[in-house]
Design a protein that fits this description.
This protein has 203 residues and is α/β, with parallel strands linked by helices. The chain has one domain (4-199): P-loop containing nucleotide triphosphate hydrolases (Rossmann fold), CATH 3.40.50. It is built from 7 helices and 8 strands. The protein has helices at 16-27, 42-49, 70-77, 114-119, 134-147, 163-173, 189-199; strands at 4-9, 30-32, 35-37, 62-64, 95-102, 123-129, 152-158, 177-181. The strands form 2 sheets. Strands 2-5-1-6-7-8 form a 6-stranded parallel beta sheet, with helices on both faces. The chain has a two-stranded parallel ribbon with strand order 3-4. The longest helix is centred in the last third of the chain and has 14 residues, at 134-147. It starts with a strand and ends with a helix. The relative contact order is 0.20.
């Protein structure tokens, strides 16, 4: 049975794209970015990092060039950004869907990025990069998801190990740590394969 995973994070530039590449490699899954705001596009980045021949890289649902929240970029470029305009790509394969920013980043005045995951019945994976303040940001994100009955598969940590932060996040959230992505000098296909091997048995 094919699964849909929605990759979200506690903020911007958190490691969502790198993890999405890892997950695509581990599952030989397709990749889709429903809303791209800013260039270069994440789809192009993912394509250069995934080695397997099965993954397909679907065209973005809405493509914006302004590096801003979808609602702001849409207004600036006079492009309608809404759930109604976003259609799930056709595939029988596993599908990795990468969000834009965090859970409550607005698409417009009424809808948020996480509504994409809800609309398409995708299981959420939360990427938490370990910085000062990440405990609060991570737990608030997870609390919102769980209170709104959004299924969460687990947490991915990014950055230098911080055992105290990781332990309290896992304890209070009750979620599983799926992977820890360390600070690498460079992210290449080799690193993606390495982490794909680590997460394959957990996902």
């Amino acid at each position: 049975m094919a699964h849909r995973f929605f990759v979200t994070a506690i903020g911007t530039d958190s490691g969502k794209t790198v993890f999405s590449a890892i997950l695509c490699e581990a599952l030989k899954a397709d990749y889709w970015k429903p809303i791209q705001a800013g260039l270069p596009g994440d789809t192009d980045t993912i394509r250069t990092l995934v080695s397997n021949k099965k993954s397909h890289f679907h065209e973005e649902g809405i493509k914006l060039t302004t590096p801003a929240s979808p609602h702001a970029a849409g207004k600036k470029e006079e492009v309608e950004v809404s759930l109604q305009r976003i259609e799930l790509p056709e595939t029988e394969n596993h599908l990795v869907i990468e969000g834009a920013g965090g859970v409550l980043v607005p698409l417009n005045d009424d809808e948020n990025v996480i509504d994409i995951a809800i609309k398409f019945d995708a299981e959420v994976i939360v990427v938490s990069n370990l910085y000062l303040g990440s405990i609060n940001h991570t737990l608030l994100t997870i609390e919102w998801l769980l209170k709104n009955q959004v299924p969460v598969r687990g947490i991915v940590f990014v950055g230098d190990p911080n055992p105290e932060s990781q332990e309290i996040i896992l304890k209070r959230s009750g979620l599983e740590e799926l992977l820890h992505i360390y600070n690498e000098e460079k992210i290449t296909k080799k690193e993606i394969k390495k982490y794909a091997d680590r997460i394959r048995e957990k996902i």
